[in-house]
Design a protein that fits this description.
Layout (H helix, E strand, L loop, with lengths): L2 H7 L6 H9 L3 E3 L2 E2 L11 E6 L2 E7 L8 H4 L3 E8 L8
Protein backbone atom coordinates (compact mmCIF):
# COMPACT_ATOMS: atom_id res chain seq x y z
CA UNK A 1 0.00 0.00 0.00
CA UNK A 2 1.22 3.51 -0.78
CA UNK A 3 2.49 5.49 2.21
CA UNK A 4 0.15 8.45 1.67
CA UNK A 5 -2.89 6.15 1.45
CA UNK A 6 -1.89 4.27 4.61
CA UNK A 7 -1.52 7.54 6.54
CA UNK A 8 -4.98 8.67 5.40
CA UNK A 9 -6.84 5.37 5.94
CA UNK A 10 -5.23 4.92 9.37
CA UNK A 11 -6.12 8.56 10.14
CA UNK A 12 -2.59 9.37 11.30
CA UNK A 13 -2.87 12.26 8.84
CA UNK A 14 -6.44 13.22 8.02
CA UNK A 15 -6.12 14.01 4.30
CA UNK A 16 -4.10 12.31 1.59
CA UNK A 17 -2.82 15.55 -0.03
CA UNK A 18 -1.45 16.60 3.37
CA UNK A 19 0.22 13.18 3.78
CA UNK A 20 1.75 13.56 0.32
CA UNK A 21 3.05 17.04 1.13
CA UNK A 22 4.61 15.94 4.43
CA UNK A 23 6.35 13.01 2.70
CA UNK A 24 7.55 15.11 -0.23
CA UNK A 25 9.12 17.59 2.20
CA UNK A 26 11.33 14.78 3.55
CA UNK A 27 9.63 14.49 6.92
CA UNK A 28 8.76 10.77 6.81
CA UNK A 29 11.02 7.76 7.14
CA UNK A 30 10.06 4.11 6.64
CA UNK A 31 12.43 1.71 8.42
CA UNK A 32 14.97 4.53 8.78
CA UNK A 33 14.98 5.43 5.07
CA UNK A 34 13.60 8.72 3.75
CA UNK A 35 10.27 7.94 2.09
CA UNK A 36 8.20 9.48 -0.68
CA UNK A 37 4.41 9.51 -0.72
CA UNK A 38 4.48 6.69 -3.29
CA UNK A 39 6.70 4.45 -1.13
CA UNK A 40 5.20 1.08 -0.31
CA UNK A 41 4.49 0.12 3.29
CA UNK A 42 3.88 -3.38 4.55
CA UNK A 43 2.99 -5.00 7.86
CA UNK A 44 5.88 -4.69 10.31
CA UNK A 45 7.29 -1.48 8.82
CA UNK A 46 8.19 1.33 11.19
CA UNK A 47 7.18 4.81 10.10
CA UNK A 48 8.66 7.96 11.63
CA UNK A 49 6.75 11.16 10.90
CA UNK A 50 7.68 14.71 11.81
CA UNK A 51 4.90 17.23 11.62
CA UNK A 52 4.85 20.51 13.47
CA UNK A 53 6.96 20.14 16.60
CA UNK A 54 6.10 16.46 17.08
CA UNK A 55 7.81 13.23 16.01
CA UNK A 56 5.58 10.17 15.87
CA UNK A 57 6.91 6.64 15.41
CA UNK A 58 4.45 3.87 14.59
CA UNK A 59 4.58 0.22 13.53
CA UNK A 60 2.24 -0.96 10.78
CA UNK A 61 -0.04 -3.75 12.09
CA UNK A 62 -2.70 -3.97 9.35
CA UNK A 63 -3.27 -2.77 5.80
CA UNK A 64 -6.84 -1.93 4.76
CA UNK A 65 -8.25 -0.09 1.76
CA UNK A 66 -10.82 1.61 3.96
CA UNK A 67 -11.78 1.56 7.60
CA UNK A 68 -14.22 2.96 10.10
CA UNK A 69 -12.99 5.61 12.47
CA UNK A 70 -13.15 3.20 15.43
CA UNK A 71 -10.98 0.61 13.63
CA UNK A 72 -8.36 3.00 12.24
CA UNK A 73 -6.16 2.81 15.34
CA UNK A 74 -5.94 -0.99 14.96
CA UNK A 75 -3.86 -0.46 11.81
CA UNK A 76 -0.82 0.77 13.76
CA UNK A 77 0.85 0.76 17.13
CA UNK A 78 2.52 3.88 18.51
CA UNK A 79 6.17 3.21 19.35
CA UNK A 80 7.00 6.73 20.53
CA UNK A 81 5.64 10.24 20.40
CA UNK A 82 7.72 13.22 21.40
CA UNK A 83 7.84 16.95 21.07
CA UNK A 84 10.89 18.66 19.59
CA UNK A 85 12.13 22.23 19.76
CA UNK A 86 13.63 22.44 16.27
CA UNK A 87 11.21 21.35 13.50
CA UNK A 88 14.10 20.80 11.03
CA UNK A 89 15.47 17.85 13.01
CA UNK A 90 14.58 14.31 11.90
CA UNK A 91 17.25 11.99 13.27
Amino acid sequence: MRLDKFLKVSRIIKRRPVAKEVADKGRIQVNGILAKSSSNVKIGDQIKIQFGNKILEVEVLELRDSTKKEDAEKMYQIISEKRVENSDNLD
